[in-house]
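As noted in the main text, all predictions were made from sequence alone. Below is one such record, for UDP-glucose 4-epimerase.
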Amino acid sequence: MRVLVSGGAGYIGSHTVLALVAAGHDVLVVDDFSNSKPTVQGRLEAIAGRAIPFHAFDLTDVDKTERLFAHEQIDAVVHFAGFKAVGESVTKPLEYYRNNLDSTFALAAAMAKHGVTRLVFSSSATVYGEKAPVPYQEDYEHLSSSSPYGQTKVMIERVLSDVAHISEGWKVALLRYFNPVGAHESGDIGEDPQGVPNNLMPFIAQVAVGRREKLTVFGGDYPTADGTAERDYLHVTDLAAGHVAALEHLDDMAEPARAFNLGTGTGTSVLQLLKAFERAVGRELPYEIGPRRSGDLPAFWADPTRAHTELGWRATKTIDDMCADTWRWQSRNPQGFPDA
Ligand code: WQD
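Prediction:
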C-alpha cells in the first residue's frame, strides 16, 4: 500500500516509516517540523536505501491537506502528527486542542473526500485515566485524562470511531501506546526531545552523555517494590512493528474502529530502568530521589492480549535492549539530529 505517515519525522513516526518500508509498503510523510528536524529525512533515506518523499506543512491547513490527497495516491494513513507534551498541554490548552483536533479533522475530511478508508491512529495509555484497573484493558469504558494532551487523545478516538461507523468501508485502529523507548539498531535515528526532556529515558540518556548533571527520580515512596514508579516500557521498533501489524489487519477487522494496547504487559521501575542503563553504559550514573511529580500514577502496564491474538503482534525486546539501543543512538548523536 502507499501509506501517508503524518508526523513521520518524529520519534515514533520515523521508526514506523522504516518498518513500513521494510514490510514492502510505499511511504510518504507530512510533517511541519514543529517538534522534529528536516535532517531526519536524510537519515531515513540512508537507512531505507530509497527516497522517502516529505511534504512540509501543517495539517491544520485544510486546503494544503486536501491538495495533498488530490495530488498523491494514498491508500492508507498512519496519523502521529500532534503536540504531545503532557506538562506543556496544561499551560497551553487551547493550542493543544486546536492543533491536535483541527489536524485530525482536516485529515479525516481529506480522506473522506478522496475515498481513503484505512487509518491507524497514534493514541496513548493516558486515555485510561487514573482509576482504570491495572493491567489496562481496551474495553474499559470510562476513558478520561487529567491533561489537555490526554483529553485530545480521548476526543480523537471518539471522533474517528464515530466517523468510521457512519462512513462506508472505513476501518480505523486506535493504538494505545504505553511508554515507548529505545532507538533503531543503526543508532542513526532516535528520540530527540527539544529542550529539557520530560520523559525518563531521554533524560537518563542525556545524563549518560554529559548533557545533564544528574537524574532526579520523581518520588521514592510509591507503593512499589523499590518505592519508585513503574511503567510498561516498550521498544520503539516493537511499537513500529505494531503499526504495520495493525495496518495490515484492517481489512480483516470486523468493527469499523477498534482500540489495541501496545505494551509488554510488564512494569519496570524508575530505578530498575536506571540500573539497566548503567549496564548499557558500563558505569554508574548520578541521581537523587526528589519529590513526586504532580499527576504521576504509581504503577500501570498493559494487558496486551488483544494485540497478541488479533494483530499477531507481541513485544520482543528487553529492557536491556531498550537501554543499549538508546545509548548507541545518544552516544553517537550527543546533540541529537543536526539542524542542517
Ligand atoms: C516515567 C516515569 C516519572 C522523568 C508520559 C506521558 C504519556 C506518554 C508517555 C505521550 C514516571 C519518572 C521521569 C524524570 C523521573 N506520552 N521520571 N524523572 O509520565 O509514564 O508517560 O510519556 O503519549 O502520555 O504521560 O512517562 O517518561 O515522563 O515518566 O523519575 O526526569 O519516570 O515520574 O514515574 P509517563 P515519563
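Residues 93-113 form the longest helix (21 residues). The longest strand covers residues 118-124. These features were considered when defining construct boundaries for the mutagenesis experiments described in Section 2.9.
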